[in-house]
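For concreteness, we quote verbatim a single protein encoded this way:
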Amino acid sequence: MTRFQKESLKIRILKLAALKCTGSPADLALMFNVSERSIKRLVKEIREDGMEIRFCPIRRSYVMGIDYH
C-alpha cells in the first residue's frame, strides 16, 4: 500500500466514523479490499495522529471522540 493510498483510507475511515457508519473492522476490510489487520493498523495510526476514534460495540461502528455512546 502506498503512502497516498494509506492516507486516503484514513480520510475515508474518519469520514465514515463521523457519520457513525463504518461497520466492524471486518466490514471495513471488505469495503476497502484490505485485511482486517490493516484496518486496525490504520485506526491505530489515526489515534497516534491525535484523533479520538473508538469502536462502539452497541453501534457496531467506529465513532469520533465524545460521540462514543
The first strand starts at residue 53 and ends at 56. The helical segments are 3-18, 25-32, 36-48.
